[in-house]
Write a structure and sequence with these properties.
Layout lengths: L1 E6 L3 H29 L4 H16 L15 H18 L5 H8 L2 H11 L8 H18 L12 H24 L5 H22 L2 H4 L7 H26 L4 H4 L2 H16 L6 H18 L7 E3 L4 E3 L1 E11 L3 H17 L6 E8 L4 E10 L2 H8 L12 H4 L8 E10 L6
Parallel strand pairs: 1-7
Antiparallel strand pairs: 2-3, 4-6, 4-7, 5-6
Helix pairs in contact: 1-4, 1-10, 1-12, 2-3, 2-8, 2-10, 3-7, 3-8, 4-12, 5-6, 5-7, 6-13, 8-10
Length: about 425
């Protein structure tokens, strides 16, 4: 087997990593308070339209490195992510404190897991994940319950329900964006989602008469500052940081912002806006974050000894690569995610599985399926007695230009190769 080495990150990349994490952890956490200030002066869909359109147009000027996302694939995800996710969140924060809104919004990973499975875009939830979902929604129930389990103010039930709907629509938009946007340049895709969401939010504001209620006097320095922060910090910098981190961090690790954002939002709400810190809020936050932890934090796996080297290594990577016509790449990626990736993830021992693409520039797109396993025995449980043989499904032949008979296996070691170019 070949050893797979990761390059040493440069000093510049380490600084960029810290800056990007700061944006995703702390800037996103603080946008809840900025949103509360903004909707105090402007209607919620108007705020959403301004921040999404402005950020999307600015992000459109950033040159991408891959194919553009077709607009027909951007409209529905943009509607769900921004008109639904941002707009409903802004609406709910008319009556719900920013810290509480952030705690409810922390259920997004739970919605993601459930909706991805229901729509055939993800594996069946394990018992651990189901327990996490139960704790998460129990926490939301503690916040929104009309009775008082502990001393403290009761929450507006309608506002809490609207914010829960915002979390669900954001998760649904994420699932659809992942379905259609795998082969598109991520910066271009983010820009088009923002523009599409901004346009649909503007249409929603127009249809509900929000624009007619906007007064020039509402654009005070505080309101303009909140809008600028939401646009530049939350939407523009947040999108760029998140896209950059997605290429360098495991999804489960990156999703830990769901732990940090509610804490930042709650503390800022108490310190800046005088929002109450009640025992009920503390109990609900602890319950939701425990549920998120059950979903995102995987149990530690023991390192496996791999035959025939009998050498202790973290895991084995199985890599398959084929080529498809560019105009069929998105459909084939969706097909692979619904067949091979699901088969990987439902095989006992599988650690992870994902699909990657690379535009070859000649009308073809290379599609790679990378799966991680603890040992060869686990791979044999998926591929059969000859683990080097490629596994195909009925419709593969309709998409692929060539069908390799074998796959590659690599011993994955957490080594840093001095002098290698940074990722």
């Amino acid at each position: 087997m070949t050893h797979l080495l990761r390059p040493c990150p440069s000093r510049r990349e380490r600084i960029t990593l810290i800056a990007a994490l700061f944006v995703v952890y702390f800037v996103w956490g603080s946008t809840f308070l900025a949103g509360r200030f903004a909707v105090g002066q402007l209607p919620p869909m108007t705020v959403t339209a301004i921040r999404a359109l402005a950020a999307g147009l600015m992000l459109s000027m950033v040159r991408g490195s891959g194919p553009a996302l077709p607009w027909r694939h951007a409209i529905l995800p943009g509607l769900l992510l921004f008109t639904g996710g941002y707009g409903l969140l802004m609406l709910g924060m008319l009556t719900v404190p920013s810290g509480v809104a952030a705690v409810i919004d922390a259920t997004i990973p739970m919605w993601l897991v459930g909706l991805a499975w229901l729509l055939g875009e993800g594996p069946r939830p394990t018992r651990r994940i189901v327990a996490g979902l139960a704790f998460g929604f129990l926490g939301v129930g503690l916040l929104a319950a009309p009775w008082s389990l502990l001393p403290g103010e009761r929450l507006d039930v309608f506002g809490a329900a609207v914010i829960s709907a915002a979390a669900a629509t954001w998760a649904l938009g994420t699932v659809l964006a992942r379905h259609h946007g795998n082969t598109a340049d991520p910066v271009n895709a983010s820009a088009r989602y923002l523009v599409a969401g901004g346009v649909t939010s503007a249409l929603a504001a127009l249809a509900t008469g929000e624009f007619g209620r906007v007064e020039l006097a509402a654009f005070t320095p505080a309101t303009l500052g909140a809008l600028a922060y939401l646009t530049l910090g939350g939407s523009l910098a947040g999108s760029l940081a998140y896209v950059w981190l997605m290429r360098r961090m495991e999804p489960a690790t990156l999703s830990t912002h769901a732990f940090v954002n509610p804490v930042i939002a709650t503390l800022l709400g108490a310190l800046v806006a005088g929002e109450a810190l009640t025992p009920q809020l503390g109990l609900a936050m602890a319950t939701i974050l425990f549920g998120v932890a059950l979903i995102l934090v995987r149990p530690t796996r023991r390192r496996a000894r791999v035959h025939p080297t009998n050498k202790e290594i973290p895991m084995i990577a199985r890599l398959w690569e084929g080529t498809v016509p560019r105009d069929r790449a998105a459909d084939y990626v969706s097909y692979v995610e619904a067949t091979g990736v699901i088969a990987h993830r439902t095989t006992p021992g599988n650690i992870a599985s994902s699909v990657m693409t690379r535009d070859l520039g000649d009308g073809r797109v290379a599609v790679m399926v990378l799966s991680l396993w603890p040992d060869l025995q686990a791979i044999e449980a998926f591929a059969g007695p000859d683990p080097d043989t490629a596994v195909y499904y009925p419709e593969d032949e309709e998409y692929l230009l060539e069908m390799p008979d074998t796959v590659m296996h690599y011993e994955v070691e957490d080594l840093c190769w001095p002098g290698a170019a940074p990722a």
